[in-house]
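User: I'm curious whether this sequence folds into something compact or stays loose and floppy. Could you predict its structure so I can see for myself?
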Amino acid sequence: MGIVVTVVAGLQARGAELVGEPERYEDNYRLCYVRGPEGIIVEPAEQIS
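Assistant: Here's the prediction. I'll summarize afterward.
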């Protein structure tokens, strides 16, 4: 399990929701968008190569 998955799970436990699905960018990064309870969207990303 990658860091992004772990971070998103922790954020969801605190009321955040995933926007769309986690994706890979050019087989170099795993990323996704998460909306927090206040409506702020952040993009956790992890280098995978």
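Summary: The helical segments are 3-13. Residues 17 and 35 are 5 Å apart (CA to CA).
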